[in-house]
Amino acid sequence: MDREERRAQVLRHAKRIFARKGYHRTNVADIILRARIARGTFYLYFRNKREIFEVLLDQALRDLSERIRRIRMAADEPSPVDQLRANLGRVLEFVMMERELTDIVLNHAVGFDREIDARILEFYEQIAQKIQRSLDLGVQMGLVRQCDTHTVACCILGGVKEVVGQLSRRRRHDTDAIVEEILNFGLRGVARPELLVEHQPAGEVTGEGERLFHAAH
Amino acid sequence: MDREERRAQVLRHAKRIFARKGYHRTNVADIILRARIARGTFYLYFRNKREIFEVLLDQALRDLSERIRRIRMAADEPSPVDQLRANLGRVLEFVMMERELTDIVLNHAVGFDREIDARILEFYEQIAQKIQRSLDLGVQMGLVRQCDTHTVACCILGGVKEVVGQLSRRRRHDTDAIVEEILNFGLRGVARPELLVEHQPAGEVTGEGERLFHAAH
Amino acid sequence: MDREERRAQVLRHAKRIFARKGYHRTNVADIILRARIARGTFYLYFRNKREIFEVLLDQALRDLSERIRRIRMAADEPSPVDQLRANLGRVLEFVMMERELTDIVLNHAVGFDREIDARILEFYEQIAQKIQRSLDLGVQMGLVRQCDTHTVACCILGGVKEVVGQLSRRRRHDTDAIVEEILNFGLRGVARPELLVEHQPAGEVTGEGERLFHAAH
Amino acid sequence: MDREERRAQVLRHAKRIFARKGYHRTNVADIILRARIARGTFYLYFRNKREIFEVLLDQALRDLSERIRRIRMAADEPSPVDQLRANLGRVLEFVMMERELTDIVLNHAVGFDREIDARILEFYEQIAQKIQRSLDLGVQMGLVRQCDTHTVACCILGGVKEVVGQLSRRRRHDTDAIVEEILNFGLRGVARPELLVEHQPAGEVTGEGERLFHAAH
DNA sequence: GATGAATGAGGATTCATTCAT
DNA sequence: CATGAATGAATCCTCATTCAT
């Protein structure tokens, strides 16, 4: 077997175990047992237990980072809302595909080690900043109401994290609806209220979302 | 020294250490060193390392639970929004007072042990349910828009958790403003849009919040 | 409460616990719990855990020693067989009365500590010697057949120990019959054969024992 | 070094130490020091301290059990007395070869742990039963006098145990004579008296044994 | 490269004994 | 005398990592 292939195989097994038991309760013994390799072989591919965990973590963080793209306001881009929707969709797609990695990022990598803690914190910090910058832009453009964009960005990030945690735990697959629900909640939370209702008949409830989401066009 | 006093003293020290280093990296040696007691003395007050952690965790969960009260609709109660505000205020007050416990609940108690994991999950689950029930009630009363209240409840819970995490990390104290910010974001996210803007001049932004928050009166 | 009385009370409780769990598995905590005294009080009456055990052991060894009397051949003494019978009877009486002490002497005091091991070994050694001397005397008097009296003495001692162990474990009380049985077995094992059968009709079996036991008169 | 070889080596050292100091006073440190292995290596071969002790105990009990064979009455078998002699010989051979194991079975395994206590008790119980069954058979065949075979079996077992204990402590090697002595004592203790003396001249003492022992032919 | 036996530092827990009140 | 909180040495066991084959 090719070196990279074997390494990937070990990573695959480790991922499942770390996700299930967390870093501390996972032994090297667990990993080599599942990966069907010898103790020494493990150390041929990874410097130590910590490294294999970091590789997995980095992989997840990098992938997630790529899935969350900056909102662009160019004329040839989709509407900001559509860009948000696409971001959210990609994140949830990752979650559904990589439940184990999600679990690791979300739960098992905190309170672990100064350095790794810091790395995760920084990752979330970056996302929060991306969100905050988008909000600031929205305010400038008259789409987002005046608010403490830092706190609101946290709220949004936290909301997504919590829903993501739920999803990774449950076997639900109706991600599109959930994306819509989060988007709806978040946008209403930040939108300037004038953009939400216009000449709307009392009973009609479902249609409004669509209007909001496309109001920026 | 009185028994309870001594026990509390040990707990106090353990709390700081667990918060800083997490359960696994904290030794009994660390705790007894800080608490200035002998090895055996520790085991006089706690069956084992796990127990002292559980005591701290339970203490936090119980305290937090008490701070989050069910929204009541009786005539002699404050408005629902005021009740929400009070809940949030009490939670943030706890966070500021008990940064270490907050840290433990938020970060260090997950991926630890099936049983403790389950206990924390259940705690959050209960809060999510409280939120969801409030939302359901709001929908019935025509205050909250039609939505997937489960997902939205998750979003709200997650938002609060994230902000709380931020707060426990930083030395900020403007909690009242933050409470207001979260409330504002959350309420707008769920309120029926008609309740948000009524005959409002375009420029006026700040006044609208107040109206919303007291709309239920 | 009087000092000696209290000491005796603690000893009584310790005896039961040592018998049931042995020295090593018995904690000072067990003893003070049962005796309803404080930790420090224990050390007021006994230097340490070992001492209380030794007191019990010595008590048992001394009592037993007194119950096993040297066989005397004076004209005004009962027959040697009756003296043996009386010895055995007294030993079994002790066993039935002091099951716990018996248990301690028999089982829980070996492999414990060089010194205590030696003391017990010496005790048994002394009894074996008493038996051996009696046998030697019997040989001289023409009652006992030629044999390796040391080995035979061991056999006899061991036989009694084993039966005693059985008795202390079970709730049987027919000690007299057992005394007779042991005596019968042992005497036949050592008696000169001529003394066992004399002009005896083939079928008669039960009577012979009596003749043997009183043959020395 | 081969796995089994290494394991055996550790067992060999542990055997000596357990025999000398007993279970409780023996540390794992003692064992690994003697066996010249690292702490962890010990736990590679044995789950814990208790297990290595049990392995040794079981080994002894199994070996001993195999050395004590049921007395068979078939025409092509040696005489019952010869079978007894062979059994005794094999037991004493074991004792001389495996003094340490003998010591463990005899002394260091009692009052240790409910389960192990029970196992040893059961072992002796089984031997006692074997003896008792042989006695019952002897009674049926008219070789053994009427008696409480249970008690007598205990006497015989105890006698052997005591002699065995003596042997394992001392450096004697004249086992054949001792076997003969025990046999002689035991057989006389149980034999029907008519079988012991027949037309025997007064002075002749040594010959009688032979006759008895071969009477069953 | 692959193996897995060996290592030993590290950490949790117990319990006999002391001593201030 | 009596108490029981405090002590800390002793001991078992785990597990990440190394290294000779």
Q: What is the helix tally of chain A?
A: 10
Largest sheet of chain A: none
- Count of beta strands of chain A: 0
Shape of chain A: elongated
Keywords:
Arc Repressor Mutant, subunit A, 10 helices, 2 domains, disordered C terminus, DNA-binding, homotetramer, Tetracycline Repressor, domain 2, mainly alpha, 217 residues
Please tell me about this protein's structure:
The structure is a homotetramer of 217-residue chains. Chain A is mainly alpha-helical. Chain A has 2 domains: 1-46, Arc Repressor Mutant, subunit A, CATH 1.10.10; 56-214, Tetracycline Repressor, domain 2 (Orthogonal Bundle). Chain A is 72% helix and 0% strand. Chain A has helices at 3-25, 28-35, 39-45, 49-67, 80-97, 99-108, 114-140, 149-169, 175-190, 207-214. In chain A, helix 5 (80-97) crosses helix 9 (175-190). The termini of chain A are far apart. The model of chain A is unreliable at 199-211 and 213-217 (pLDDT under 50). The interface between A and B is large, with 50 and 50 residues. Chain B binds a DNA duplex (21 and 21 nucleotides) through helix 3.
